[in-house]
Structures are given as C-alpha cells and as structure tokens.
Amino acid sequence: MRETPAPNRSDRPRLARRTFVTGVTAGALALAGCTGDGDGDGDGDESPADDESDDDSLDEDTLEDIEVGPEFLEVEDPPDAVYLPTHREAMRMLDPIETGDYALAPMLSYPHPFWIVAGGAGEEDVSREDPDDGRGVHMMFTLWDPETGVVLPVDDGAELRVYRDGEQVGSPRSPWTMISQEMGFHFGDNVPLPEDGRYTVEVDLPPLSTRTTGDLEGRFGERTTARFEFVYDDAFRHEVGGGVDYLDEAEWGARDALEPMDHGGHGDGEHDDHGDDGHGEHDDHDGDHDSAEHSDGHGQDHDYVPYSALPTIDDYPGTLLVAPDADTPETETHEDLPRSGDAAVLATVFEPGHRLADGDERYFLVSPRTPYNRVPLPDASLSITIERDDDSDPEHFDLEQTIDGAFDHHYGTSVPETAIQPGDVVTVTFDRPPQIARHQGYETAFLEMPPIELELPVDDSEDE
Amino acid sequence: MTLPDRSALSRRDYVRTLVAVGGASALAACLETVRNDEERTVPSGTDDPESLPERQHAWNSVLSTDEDGNVTPPQHHVLVALSLVDGVDPAAEESRAAVEEALRTLERAYEWSNEGLLFTLGYTPAYFARFDEPLPSSVDLPDPEPLIRGGDPEFDEYDAVLHLASDAPDAVLEAEQALFGDRERSNGIDLEADLTDVFESLADRRRTGFVGDGLPAEHADVPGVPDSIPEEAPFFMGFRSGFRRSQATEDRVTIGTGPFAGGTTQQISSMELQLEVWFEQDNHFQRVSKMFSREHAEDELVGDYGEALADSSGLTDERIAATEADAREHGVVGHAQKTARARDDGEPPLLRRDFNTVDGDRPGLHFLSLQHEIGDFVRVREAMNGEDLDVPRANNGILHYVFVDRRGNYLLPPRSLRALPSPTPDGEDERG
C-alpha cells in the first residue's frame, strides 16, 4: 500500500478544518451530506469540489490534509443511548442498480470509524474499527426490493470484490450490516485502495435465507451479482471530505438523532436544506416508505433510494401493547413507545386469522426500531412470555426475524388465540441485542436491552 | 511469474517465494540458496518399494510431534494439477508403468519423511468418468458441489493432483522439476522416467503454500496480510490448529473394504482470507469467540495464538451442545464449536492437512482434508455453514472472513493402485 503521511490527529486544530470546509467547499455544505453524482463517474455537474480541486487558492498543505478524509472528532462520554454525533457525513451516491430481485444503491464516503458487535453487554463485545491512514473509501450500499420499496436489512452473506484494470484489489470482503442516523440500515466497510484510479466493484448477493412474507415471500431465491464503477481521485476526496458538516459542539452527544438523508430523487439538483439543527420532527421526512409508497413502488423514478424507516404505529393492524403503568392507554406517537436500550419497541397482536398467523391463530409482532428515525434493529433475538392473572403457567414463545412486504422488518410468531387475552402481561425479552455495526451516535445504544413488560389493553377498541 | 528479489527478503521468505513461483529457474535459485549456504543434504530414499507404506497418506508416523503430541506438518507444499495428455489411454499398461516408474524414482531420490519428500497422487471423479465402469460402492467420490448457499466456486475438473510436501523447499521444487522439467538428476539420483508422456502439468492451476510457527507473520509484505498477525501464529487466522484430539486418525479416514482398501478420499477447498478485517476490526475476544466459542473467550482458554490449548481445541460435549443456545443468547458461535457438531460419536471425521498460501499475491488457505468418504466432509461443511443457527453471518464462526474459490474431490488409491487406477481394479491382473 502506498504510504500516506500520517496526520497527527490530536494536534490538528479543529478550527482550521472548519475554516477549510467553510471557505473552500461552501457549496458542498448546502448539499449537506448528499452530494449527488448521478452518472457516478466523478464528473457530476453538481459537485462543487470538482471545480474547487483546481483552485489555485488551495495550497499543497490543505490538499494534503484531505488526502484520506477529514479527521474524526470524538464525543466525550456519550450517553448509553442514541445521541447526536459531531457531524453530518458527505458521500457520493452512484446510480442505483437493479439485479435479480434486488435493487442496490452504492454510496461512497471517506474511511471513518465504526463499531462492530458480537454479543452486546460485555466490554469486549463491541470493537471499534479505526481505518488506516492509507487511502480508501467507506463503501456502502442500500439493498431493497424495488417492488415494495422495503429495505432488506439482514446479514445473509453478501460479498464484495474490488477490481482495477481487471485485477482484483485486495481480498474479498463481507460487508458489515450497519446502521447510521443519516443512512439508516445499509451494508458497508472501510475499503483501502492502493492509488487513485477507476475501480469496479462486484457485489455478490446469495439467496436470502431470512423468512420473508407477504409480497416478499418466495422471492430473492437466486444468487445475483451487482456491478458498479467509481473513480477515486482528488475530486472525490474533496467532495466527500470537504462536504462534511460539523454540528455545533454544544449539540454533540445530545439525546437526539440526525435526520435521515434525503435519498429520493437525487441527481435532480434539488436537495433539502439539512442545515437545520437536527432537532426537527423526523416522522415525516421524505425517506419514509409508508404503506402508500408500498402500493405504488413501480412509479418511483429510477434514482429513488429508500431510507430504511419502518412503518409508523398507525400502519400496523391489531392491538398495540402498552406499558402497564402508562398514564394513557393510547400510545399516540412514536416517541411514546416503550424503550429498551433506547430502542423504541412496538409490539402488537393481530386479530385471529391474519395472513401472517397459522390458521386462526393471532400473530404477535415486535418491531424494535431506533427512537427517532424508525430504523430497524435486525439480527437480535427476541422472545415473549405471556402471563395471566390466574394460576395458569406463563407461556413462552421465541420470535422469528421476518421481513414482510407491508410490515417490513420485525420479529414475530403465531400464538393460539387462547394464549393471549386482554389484561395479559407480556414480557418482551431481548435474548441478545441487534448484532449490527454502528456509525457514530448509535454505538452506545441497543446493547444492554432489559426486558420490557407490556399489557394487552382491556379496552380493546376497533383498530383495523 | 518472475523470481523474487533476494536482497529484499529474509532467507526463509525468499525460498518460500521460490516455491510459490516454481519452475527450473526458481529451483536453481533455491538450490543455490539452501545448498550452498550450509552443509546440508536432503536424505535420499529407498530402492525397496515394499518398505514404504501401502497407504499413500501414511505420513504421521514419519512426521515429528510437538510437546503436546500434535503432528507437525511439513512446511512447504505444492499441489500440481494434472491432466492426461491427449490420446493417452489410462488403461494402457505402458502408461501405468510410466507413472509408477516416475513415482518410484522420486521415492529413490527422497526419504519418505518431512526432511525428504512426502507425496500423494489423487484422482478426480472426472478421471474415473473416462471409464465405462463406475467406482465401487466402497468409494464415496461424488462430483464437487458448492456447499454454500448461493456459492459459486470453480471445481477441479482435471484428472489428478499431486501433493508434494517437505520441510525442504528445494525438495518440493526439485521433485516437481524431476517429473515435469528437463532435469536429469534429482537429489543425486539419475532420473529414468518422468510424467510428461502421460500427464500435463497445468501451470495456471498450480497451488502452493506453507505451514509453520511464524511463517504467516513473515508475509506481512503481501497485500492483505496485516502486520498485526501474532508473530508465533502457525496459520494466517492467528491460531494453532490441527490439534491431535481434533484430528481424525489415519486409520479412521482409510477405506477399509473393496478394491481401494488402504486408500482414502481427499478434498481440497481453496479460499481467500480477509485478514485485514479479522485482525484490525475484530478484537481478540471476538476472534476467539468466532474461531472457538464464546466460552473460550470468556474463560481465556486460548491464549494469544492457541498456545494455551495443548492437544485439543478445548471443546467439551457441553460446549458443542451449547452452539444453538450460544447463537441465540450471545449472537456469536465459534467455528470449531459448530463444526464439531459433525463429529461421529465424539470422533473428528477429518484429517486436516491444510496449509496457507499467498498464491495470487493474496492471503489464502488451501484446505486439504482426508476423510473416509467425501460425505464426511460435506457433513462438516454443512455444520460449519450453520444455516440452522439463529446467528447473523458476521458472527457465524469465520464465514464472514473466508471466500471459497475452488473445490475438488479426489480418491487417493493405495500405493499399489496409484498409477492410473481403473475404477474396477479387482477385475484386472495384478500389476507391479
């Protein structure tokens, strides 16, 4: 690998960085982390960095500064919860690809830290990846079903290989499944690159083994390969490095989340103004794929990239379970949902005979999600215990991870109608937390996840 | 491939690289390096074929063992892929005689040991398909299959593979040249026959590798091999393996009945390894959890590179039985733990003779195993796949880090049938 001068990160003044960002690539700031590049060849006409890279006002030292990427700033003593990171990332979005039953949207940023998880509560269970100072990218892709718009958020063995001039670069990789506040669920990894140039990436997608239901049932059964190209050069580094948008330091670590990035319709020159403070109501962001979008997925323009937001409370039929001591029996808003490890936990039991249940049983669905952006929390293990206020023994059910065409990612099981009745207390247990990698702002949440006690309300109103 | 720069490499790395390059000039450079440097000779072999074991795979008795009784494999390996020369009739007596004579020449030239040369010659299902008769039911040798959901490896569809192994790098190179090059003498023995009339050596299918304490760490100059590999580790993944109690015995993997009694089956899976992620993203606790088990990590049973495991991978029946529960509760299962579920009454079914490689200038593993039948390997691989386990791929043992490119299945006939065997040797005259 080519040697790159190792910047002394601790000594690098933050002020200088901000001056650089503001002074040189102010245009990228307005894009706020979504520097669209519709043709994916590095000549995007809306990338201000392209023009700036030839700017004589950039001295060599400044260029050197972002040879790899901007420095990664730390939040001191973050809460054990979702928190605001230090910055919004910038990335280059490449054209979405359809292959087999899948759609895939590649995105590239600069290498940056993330956290991988094996286990959850233990000190050693989370490992922080710090990229080398060498060159490379943080390579990401969102994978979804183009028919329903449902993002497929499970680790089922995708592999990627990078080529240059027909020769494989480095070893193959299994991209991590990851969540980030701006990107939602995606696959990604830091990928070192030996030098500037044009690279081709092949993503192999094996048949999906996770349970799929509804419009997704019986699909994704064939292996398929997606291919895309990108150019790694100064223009790219300026674009993604210079486009970083730092929040006010006072906000760092606050219990909130960055709003989802606006992926939809990128390349049309319109970008939402993300320059607000990140405290807005997120439930109505553009990245929603609510039930209305599910029905007209065919009408999406080809640049559409869904954000992995789960449906809202009202989109689920059945009876929502509530905390036994809830002041009001109704849970109105997403942020009212009970939390475990800062995950908002939506639990509902469908009426008998629902398509997801066996025969005339009921379907018990639990959908843990991030508290602000409704991002799914996959690859956890959940079980429920149902207790009745009589002498009967509690009933225990393991839930199965499932992706449904309408209700999206969840954990569910069929339960006999007699097994659950109004007034029953249901304990939702996280046998293990979600085994997904996290970007900054999510790495301290969803790890220690205590059981949640819920109640099937007695006042069972019509809810369909 | 060009010869490596002597001045840029340690002596050990240099000769290892020469083995990987192969050919006459690599041999010449290797001989110059190892034989002129010191008063060293490679021990010569025997004129008496009867003194050699009937099992081609009878290696353990001539290999040394470590303090824990684990067999120490030879350091240098070459897998020579062979295709029958066009027009050669494998049933023709002259062809068989030529192959046998060439192999006996090797046995005269080199002692049957890790200091001399160990080798096996194995045949693929594609070879046996040249004959009208099928293999007997006592031999389980199906065509290779992907054995991975959605996997798409290539298959070894040529005729045979010659596995050369030695601690002496010049021995494996010289033996290969003796059979396919233009050498006239090999380790002081006049060469009377080679294989070129019968077999063509497929250069682009040639595979090489190495095993040994510290050898992986010496390859940190290869792209994709991080500096953080433990210096003592004998394998790229950073841990010892091939523990005595985790290995099948040679007896166990030997075919006991039928015309190929005394033979065995061999499978070779070649894979790339993602070591940068393994060593630089996962931490040691996670690596131990994924390679052995969560309990190995919590109880610190492994040490830095497996040195705390004496002669077994430390898998109790309880730890093996806990695989499903570990998946659900901890979200991670160990490679050793879950594959041990394929044990037969507690007995490991595979005799591993795998070795690491930097073929293609990337880190990899040639996973070579011997087993009574290929079905044993399939069972182990399915246990390794762990499709039944409630665990994400990233934490499902080491699946996240290994990428199988090729698979091949072989029959290693007994020594007396190693030269172009017919699938029905019973029906033929005994041959010498």
From TrEMBL, chain B:
Q: Where is the composition biased (Basic and acidic residues)?
A: 341-351
The record, for InterPro entries, names: Dimeric_a/b-barrel (IPR011008), DUF7405 (IPR055828)
SUPFAM superfamilies according to UniProt: Dimeric alpha+beta barrel
Signal peptide annotation: none
Q: Where is this region: Disordered?
A: 328-351
Instruction: Show the PROSITE patterns listed in the entry.
Output: PROKAR_LIPOPROTEIN
Stated name of the protein: Tat pathway signal protein
Origin species, per record, is Halobiforma nitratireducens JCM 10879
